Amino acid sequence: MKEIIIRKAEKDDWRKVYELYSRLSDEDLYLRFFHYYRPSEEEVRKLVTEQRDHITIVAVDEEGKVIGEGTIYNDGEF
């Protein structure tokens, strides 16, 4: 049985989150963002870095690979 850990993203997770978005198909990206959009490295760094307006969580598999990401903003917007 595989184990998935859901935890708050850490500063050093940015590269793994970027790799997650890099391996998604155009269709998967469209379903994630509701339009075609592939985040840049800088955007992912900002997303994962702790800030006052949001928190980012990641789902990590047993090998440490990020297999999911979610961000919650204080104002309720994406």
Explain what this protein looks like in three dimensions.
The chain has a single domain, classed as Gcn5-related N-acetyltransferase (GNAT) (Aminopeptidase). It is 33% helix and 24% strand. It is built from three helices and three strands. It has a three-stranded antiparallel sheet with strand order 1-2-3, covered by helices on one side. Helix 1 crosses helix 3 (41-48). The radius of gyration is 12 Å and the shape is globular.
What's this model, at a glance?
This is GNAT family N-acetyltransferase. With 78 residues, this protein is an alpha+beta fold. It has 3 helices and 3 strands; from the N terminus they run E-H-H-H-E-E.
Termini separation comes to 33 Å
Major sheet attributes: 3 strands, antiparallel
The tally of strands reads 3
**Number of helices in the DSSP assignment:** 3
Which architecture would the CATH scheme give at its second level?
Answer: 3-Layer(aba) Sandwich
Named CATH topology: Aminopeptidase
* Number of individual domains: 1
User: Which percent bin holds the helix content?
Assistant: 25-40%
Radius of gyration: 12 Å
Q: What structural class is derived from the secondary structure elements? A: alpha+beta
**What is the H/E string?**
EHHHEE
Question: What is the mean predicted local confidence, pLDDT?
Answer: 89
Protein name: GNAT family N-acetyltransferase
InterPro entries: Acyl_CoA_acyltransferase (IPR016181)
